[in-house]
Amino acid sequence: MRAILLLTCLALPAWAQSVNPQTIIRLEREANGRCRGGSGDQQPTWQACGEREAYANILEMLNWCYGRNGEAGYQMNWHACGPGSLHRQIPRQKG
Fold first, then answer.
1. What's the total number of domains in the chain?
2. Where in the sequence is the domain holding 29, given as residue range(s)?
3. Among 44, 63, 87, 95, which residue is least crowded by beta carbons within 10 Å?
């Protein structure tokens, strides 16, 4: 639910400029823990996974990336995008 609110806020340029990436990273990590730690057949798990994706998309829109070319999964972290950064593909809404 917080992710939907944040996505709505990001549609406004003034809000987008005031978003703190570190706060979004914290929320993404919390959602990731609930997503990965939950049972795959439980609604709260699916909700957490959706939140995680929404937060990751927000970070990408803020020009933050997860990982760099040549890094193994355990080495990857969120950082301001730069040369060699891995960019997410944000799904576009149909219709």
1. 1
2. 2-10+19-67
3. 95
